[in-house]
Automatic annotation (TrEMBL):
Signal peptide: none annotated. Belongs to the LysR transcriptional regulatory family. PROSITE patterns: HTH_LYSR (PS50931). It comes from the Bacteria. The keyword Chloroplast does not apply. Residues 1-58 form the HTH lysR-type domain. This is LysR family transcriptional regulator. It holds the Pfam family LysR_substrate.
């Protein structure tokens, strides 16, 4: 059994037709059929139920497809990471991140892998709100920003935004709050009378604007009871009973006692994180950092 057979199998499984799969692979159909037959013999199972026009995965074939995709995805990721690692790279890379980024799965892996793959590069990382990050990119004070822009943000032509992670906005409530006992999702209307603890807009324009839009779309005006400049402070204030909040589910990884994270019954609850950089940095450490991030993201997608 080889990787070529796995790629052939995935093509047939996705096309559900040997002729279409052969065209996709740019080979003739007889060698493809022979390789699939050899794969089935090696496994000792039938992977497909065949008809004259179409093929259908057997139960065993469906299981094998999931594992084959996983294997090929991990291989592609490993190849990309290896190529990046041997390219070398020197100089300084300045990276800024907004509040919850260190809590996001993949951030630590990204930083660690970059440091291991580019041992001669100097990596400077600092916390910086989204607005100042955009200004720092304009003024070339940082090379890469990990940020959460406002929902309607349109980057200027010289800035490139690359998706990095997609969080989901959650309602953060004290464990003794009546909404903590509510089964299912929480409606925005349930929050209308609750004191809301928010980031000020200059600290997190993305979360601030998204929260306001959710209330406005429901025809409501949020009752803002408190602002706090740190996510951990917001969670702590919720635990103390000062109010409730809307935060990315990354904060749930803090496992703070006295709070629960409830899902929202609303549209537009995704609050994505982006990698931002200038387009005029080809071949630099910036591009290598972005490509590494994309490779890691692809590997995680293959495992999901």
């Amino acid at each position: 059994m080889g990787l070529r057979q796995l790629r052939y199998f995935v093509a047939v499984a996705e096309e559900r037709n040997f002729t279409a799969a052969a065209q996709r692979l740019n080979i003739s159909q007889p060698p493809l059929s022979m390789q699939i037959k050899a794969l089935e013999e090696a496994l000792g199972v039938h992977l497909f139920d065949r008809t004259h026009r179409r093929v259908r995965l057997t139960e065993a074939g469906a299981v094998f497809l999931e594992q084959a995709r996983l294997t090929l995805g991990q291989l592609d990721s490993a190849v990309q990471l290896t190529k990046l690692a041997v390219q070398g790279g020197t100089g300084l890379l300045r990276v800024a991140f907004t509040g919850s980024v260190p809590l996001v799965p993949g951030f630590a892996t990204l930083v660690r892998t970059f440091r291991e793959g580019f041992p001669h590069a100097r990596l400077h990382i600092e916390h910086m709100p989204t607005g100042p990050q955009l200004q720092a990119l304009e003024e070339r004070h940082i090379d890469v920003g990990l940020l959460r822009p406002a929902p309607q943000f349109q980057p200027p032509p010289h800035l490139q935004l690359t998706p990095f992670w997609r969080d989901e906005l959650r309602v953060v409530v004290p464990t003794d709050h009546f909404l903590a006992k509510r089964k299912g999702r929480i409606a925005i209307e349930d929050l209308a009378a609750e004191p809301l603890i928010l980031f000020p807009r200059d600290i997190s324009c993305g979360l601030h604007d998204q929260t306001m839009q959710l209330f406005n779309k429901a025809g409501l005006v949020p009752r803002i009871g408190q602002v706090a400049r740190e996510g951990t402070a917001i969670v702590g204030l919720v635990a103390a009973g000062v109010g409730i909040s809307l935060l990315p589910d990354a904060y749930a990884r803090l496992r703070t006692e006295g709070v629960l994270y409830k899902r929202l019954q609303a549209d537009a609850t995704n609050c994505p994180l982006f990698l931002a950089h200038r387009r005029d940095q080809p071949g630099s450490l910036t591009q290598r950092f972005i490509k590494l991030a994309q490779s890691l993201i692809a590997g995680k997608a293959a495992r999901r």
